[in-house]
Amino acid sequence: FLLAFPSITLIRTVRFLPLFHVLISVKGPWIPVSLFLVYKIKTQMDEEIDTRKINNSFLRDHNYATEADIISTVEFNSTGELLATGDKGGRVVVFQREQESKNQPHRRGEYNVYSTFQSHEPEFDYLKSLEIEEKINKIRWLPQQNAAYFLLSTNDKTVKLWKVSERDKRPEGYNLKDEEGRIRDPTTITALRVPVLQPMDLMVEATPRRVFSNAHTYHINSISVNSDYETYMSTDDLRINLWNLEITNRSFNIVDIKPANMEMLTEVITAAEFQPSQCNTFVYSSSKGSIRLCDMRASALCDNHSKLFEEPEDPSNRSFFSEIISSISDVKFSHSGRYLMTRDYLTVKVWDLNMESKPLETYQVHDYLRSKLCSLYENDCIFDKFECVWNGSDSVIMTGSYNNFFRMFDRNTKRDVTLEASRENSKPRAILKPRKVCVGGKRRKDEISVDSLDFSKKILHSAWHPSENIIAVAATNNLYIFQDKVN
Amino acid sequence: MEFKVEAHRIMSISLGKIYNSRVQRGGIKLHKNLLVSLVLRSARQVYLSDYYGGICLSAQQAREWCEGEYMASKQGKLVPGSTESLSESDEQSEVAVDKQEPRDVVESPAGLHVETQASGEQDSAENGVSDSGCSDIKTPEESPEATQTCEVASVVTAISSNCISAPSPSDPKEETETPTDCQTDNSESAEKHSYEPKAPQAYTNRKRTADDSELTDSPTKRTKLTSTSLPSTNDENKGETEEMDTSNVSSLITIFGSSFSGLLSNKEGEQPDSEAEDSDSGQICCDQMLKNLNPWSTAIVAF
């Protein structure tokens, strides 16, 4: 798949192809999920391959995906009106929810492509002889302050602030140039007129407004916008930098865990996030399974944590891979700001900010993989970084797994469900069945055994609408959007 | 033992991953390489500790060991106080020490190592890791039974083995019994090692943190290791590791080149450097281990 990087800059057309629109509901009153929509972002290359494969009688629903189309991040904006996805090819696709219309009540606010742009290009650091991937690691929306939308997108080294705005009028009637833009001969101008704004076809344009670069030696893994809406932080493996959204040539380092001697390195930062209501508080997680809460008022350099959230390791589960599976892949504050959720390889944990010694709740995502850690290490799956999300009311948490499964846990009822994001299981008006993985012994019908799981189909990224029960789940190069049943 | 085979396999896989990371697009990923190096370290300790944990020596091996040519480079590390700071086995060794107080070996592992080749219990005590594909955790009482089987290891040619037979915790002179026991138990060809995870497999599972390890390591290392015995120990250790690794991963080693020089060769020059850096002699092997297993960190430093 290694295209020579100059060729990646060739323009590829991206076509939005809605594949499905079905009504599905899930049994069980506590998480009604329905209205299954699939968007597959295809390139021209993809379509050629599809044709070829169909002609050769390959599997119709092939899993082949161009590497560049693999979705690497999904994020709703603060109102839920927009949904942004970033992919490995450095592109950002923004979906907008259409207004509900009385004519079609069952199509309750579908998401349609709003804008597509190339956010990052592959770069080459000549000084270090390193290629910088264009893969979008994270997208974060800024709160909306005017008609335009702003988002931050980042790859391994550079953060960019993009402005996504609509244009539906254009000025016409210039004096010095004609309609095509050619300069008019001044001697032909006999009268002056005032240009007038005329309506035009709606055009959505994305422009880069700020580029924040050259601040990170290591790979950026997360960005987080502060609640003061003036600053944001970018986090790499060893350092966290604080930026002002307006200033690109300066950033402040607020956390630095790089040891004096790199050979003494024992842990790296894996994720960081600002507290949603306190602009001075943030947390960062480490590869050792600990979370540190820092207060920026305490000192300029927050190397000393205010709180350390760490659970002692269970000695009965020691193995070669204990360190890997305890490494935290994602940390998210609840909307209330009172709780923290962390994801490591096998579990999701909810922490109370007031209790550092152990998590409030621990949920097993796929504990049946514990006996397979060696194989998962060989095929690199053990390094997969799953994300986790809260629902709007902080009562349900969701995270992904393998075989295109994703799991939801209701914190109140302690019930959980496993669902699958797959086109095969979706028919019009079908009911999305909860799936079950059979751990051992007799496998019941409809259950899937651990050995049959497809580890190439993983759901790493997902997002939950800030107020409604709408979820967006990224399965390789497909984006699935699930919605509440209308009834 | 199957966990030795498993450990070896994991080591090879880990080395392969580290190698591949150098040619991956996007540069070296620090986090992944750190995790891989941790796994490599654990596997390595398990792998090497096998040699000393109640391993039966072949006659040839005993000869080779007596010649002092081959000593597991891990030997020094396996000895309490020489393990890496990140290793849980350090803490385990401490616990093993506590449990096996009567043993002289525990008290002066370095001296023991140099003189008698024993300290298998130390090494085996460091097998704090267990995996689905690895052996079960054994108690000191159970290990004698396991001691009887002999394992064929194509790689290991010579080990300063701990052919300590049925553990008698109160026997301070086990090491002297070792050669005899090993020879009688050994049924392998001269080329191959027969060894056994030795008795004192007092596994303790304690939370591994670098901080804990470093804190606990230093005092134990100071009391246990003597500076005079250390250099020779390290040399011997290196030799063994070199032999073992070379035959296993020679291709990878040549590819890695200088990055793994510490891992492979008897770099005696490194010894004085480490010693100079670290006043605590017990830290030397630990440092070397870290250096050996973090060749990519130099690349990161060059960032």
UniProtKB/TrEMBL annotation, chain A:
Taxonomic placement: Eukaryota, Metazoa, Chordata, Craniata, Vertebrata
Subunit structure: PP2A consists of a common heterodimeric core enzyme, composed of a 36 kDa catalytic subunit (subunit C) and a 65 kDa constant regulatory subunit (PR65 or subunit A), that associates with a variety of regulatory subunits.
UniProt keyword Zinc, yes or no: no
Family the entry assigns: Belongs to the phosphatase 2A regulatory subunit B family.
Superkingdom of the organism of origin: Eukaryota
Listed name of the protein: Serine/threonine-protein phosphatase 2A 55 kDa regulatory subunit B
Family matches, as PROSITE patterns: PR55_1 (PS01024), PR55_2 (PS01025)
One annotated Gene Ontology cellular component of this protein: protein phosphatase type 2A complex
Molecular-function annotations in GO: protein phosphatase regulator activity
Gene3D superfamilies per record: YVTN repeat-like/Quinoprotein amine dehydrogenase (2.130.10.10)
InterPro entries to which the protein is assigned, alphabetical: PP2A_PR55, PP2A_PR55_CS, WD40/YVTN_repeat-like_dom_sf, WD40_repeat_dom_sf, WD40_rpt
Coiled coil: none
UniProt keywords, alphabetically: Repeat, WD repeat
UniProtKB/TrEMBL annotation, chain B:
Acidic residues composition bias: residue spans: 271-280
InterPro entries per UniProt: IER
Disordered: annotated segments: 77-150, 162-250, 262-283
Biased composition (Basic and acidic residues): 96-106
A Pfam entry, by short name: IER
Polar residues composition-biased segments: 116-133, 225-234
PANTHER family associated with the record: IMMEDIATE EARLY RESPONSE GENE
UniProt similarity note: Belongs to the IER family.
Name of the protein described by the UniProt record: Immediate early response 5
Taxonomic placement: Eukaryota, Metazoa, Chordata, Craniata, Vertebrata
Gene: LOC110524093
